[in-house]
Design a protein that fits this description.
Number of strands: 15
Strand content: 35-45%
Oligomer: single chain
Distance between the termini: 38 Å
Largest sheet: 9 strands, antiparallel
Mean pLDDT: 82
Shape: globular
């Protein structure tokens, strides 16, 4: 009964008009079905699925065409590879392949909805994952996760590395942000579970670098912090980062270990404070928006 009511209400909303009198004239405003739906109806009725941009970025042609493996992956995932025209190119809204990787049970194509470095400094890229077959007799596309993450300040996803942690294959993104003369680096960990994508998170970010050289005038105030991360096969559930902070003529070193427990990363050790203290203007930028 509730579903029937929802359908009837949706039809009414779809054709509803609002008559507005302005200076003696009458205007008609048509409400879109989705916008007009009450929240309860949005749960009951099927909503449009997110999709990747239909056209491939014009500048991506130079990296796709010479790479036969990448070109085949694009064809397997999307069929015909259709590029933007140079006249109507929109680097902020087009399909861009950022990485192609081979795994044991499938191949992975990672794409974004923009060209790298074409978004604002605090804007993040919409990242999609396309799981493709690597064995005969299976569908070309095994699974597709559109916009599964928002990472990559400026629209650049940074370095993408295949990993295995806690018995799961996955990928690690190491992103770089430049803001107000400061440079920040962070690590994002995703694993695959039955062709789904799951992010492993700590209660705070996982920083891998900081530098304020372009922010301060006094060279004595320069802080240079770096972190080198690795997953040791002998400790397959752990991600370890070796930190080194150089500031004021002194050097501080620290080692922090994150252990996978389910879909969480549990931290042991203290990350140097300089890597965690950041301007408020950046709080929504690290893949959280």
């Amino acid at each position: 009964m509730l579903l029937a009511f929802a359908r009837r209400t949706s039809r009414i909303c779809s054709f509803a008009t609002i008559i507005v009198a302005v200076s003696g004239a009458v205007g008609l405003t048509f409400a879109s079905p989705t916008a007009a739906q009450p929240q309860i109806l949005r749960r009951l009725l099927p909503q449009p699925k997110e999709s990747v941009p239909p056209l491939v970025c014009e500048d991506a042609r130079d990296i796709i065409e010479p790479d036969r493996q990448l070109l085949q992956a694009m064809r397997n995932s999307f069929g015909k590879v259709s590029y933007e025209s140079s006249r109507n190119a929109n680097p902020e809204n087009c399909l861009y392949p950022v990485k192609f990787l081979n795994f044991g049970k499938m191949d992975l194509l990672v794409t974004t909805g923009n060209e790298p470095d074409e978004l604002c400094a605090l804007c993040t890229a919409k990242v999609s994952a396309h799981f493709l077959r690597n064995k005969p007799g299976t569908p070309k596309v095994l699974a597709r996760h559109v916009n599964f993450a928002r990472i990559g300040p400026g629209g650049d996803t940074g370095t993408i590395t295949p990993i295995e942690i806690g018995g799961s294959e996955g990928i690690a993104f190491e992103t770089t942000t430049e803001y107000a003369g400061n440079t920040y680096k962070n690590l994002h960990i995703f694993v695959f579970d039955k062709f789904s994508v799951v992010e492993l998170k700590d209660s705070q970010r996982i920083p891998t670098g900081f530098n304020n050289e372009d922010h301060v005038e006094d060279k004595k105030a320069v802080i240079d912090a770096s972190g080198v991360w690795k997953i040791d096969p002998r400790r397959p559930r752990e991600i370890a980062i070796e930190y080194k902070v150089v500031a004021g003529g002194k050097t501080e070193e620290a080692r922090v270990v994150w252990t996978r427990e389910g879909n969480k990363l549990v931290r042991k050790g203290n990350v140097p404070k300089v890597l965690l203290e950041e301007p408020d203007a950046r709080q929504g930028e690290m893949g959280e928006n």
